[in-house]
Amino acid sequence: MEDLRLNVALLRRRVPNLTKAARSVGLRPATVSNLCTGKIPVGRSEVRTLAALASLAECSLDELIIRGENVEMIETRIKTLDLFAPLAKGGTVGLVARPGMGQLVVLAETFYRLRKEGYVTVLLKPEGDAPEINDIHDYMDVVTSSMEEAYEKIATAGKEKAIAFTTDRSHVLSGKVYEIQERLASIGVENVTTFLVDLKGEAVDEDLPYGPLETLWQFDSELSARHKYPAVNPMYSTSSVLEGAHIDQNHFSIQQRAQKLLRRYRELCSLVKVQGLDKIPASELTTYKRGERLEAYLTQPFYVAEGFTMRKGESVSLQETIKDVRKILDGSTDSKEVSELTNIGKL
């Protein structure tokens, strides 16, 4: 059962407004989102849920559920992304954030790194006035103003190279993003990884703001307020790559342990704010301190921000990240100061 996953691409094509459609048949959009990203394994979902989705997509269960197909990961060497919500090659990733949380910096950094790996980066400018998008122009090989222009550029370049394509939610709501994905697939261009951003910050208030996704990067206002960048929430960000059949079990095990520690650390932080650190039970103090160190370690200097931070950008391989996180979880860094783990690369 571990090799089962939803055919997310088919859902995108057949049910553009999945949020509304899901509610109309009694499904929670959050449940559908978690099934798409793999946070809820298909093998553990209710039959009625799968049947309802198949009905919405006007397909059979065999078409809706894909068997035995691996999801290939794109390693960004950004610690928190690769560990908690890795990119699915050829999939669609949605960034959920309010303005000011650093989503465009993360997008620029990701595109900077993908270009180094030979990807062609393409931007479809959003509808209306959005001067902030100019901040990522330097990391784009191609900037287009219309969907047709974007299609032509991707169709040409995608014959020889992998594509990283980004656009704003305005094109999702109009259905144009799904249209271009379907047209590209029809001519055999399938090596396109799509990034969806929401410059207005409205996606934060919706359960399924972009429709079906392979990867979700949920930004955290609390991390952003404390300048813990990248401010990507490790508990709510997820990816279909993390389904048991698609990743190394060591990765999955460490990811689960890290999430558990950070979840409890967040709970203890609330207690500390009210009662003070000295009121935490001795048995929980170790959990608090290790959570504090893990949160610090997951911060990372970016290449695109060197001019602002005056810190050299850092890359950390997934295997190095897993090894370092294991050390923190097992207590090897208990003697280190939190400042020693903040904004570093590997240990």
From TrEMBL:
It is found in: Membrane. The keyword Secreted does not apply. It comes from Halobacillus naozhouensis. PROSITE patterns: ATPASE_ALPHA_BETA. Belongs to the ATPase alpha/beta chains family. InterPro entries: ATPase_a/bsu_AS, ATPase_alpha/beta_chains, ATPase_F1/V1_b/a_C, P-loop_NTPase. Keywords: ATP synthesis, ATP-binding, CF(1), Ion transport, Membrane, Nucleotide-binding, Translocase, Transport. It comes from the Bacteria. Transmembrane segments: none annotated. The keyword Transport applies. PANTHER family: ATP SYNTHASE, ATP SYNTHASE SUBUNIT BETA, MITOCHONDRIAL. This is F-type H+-transporting ATPase subunit beta.
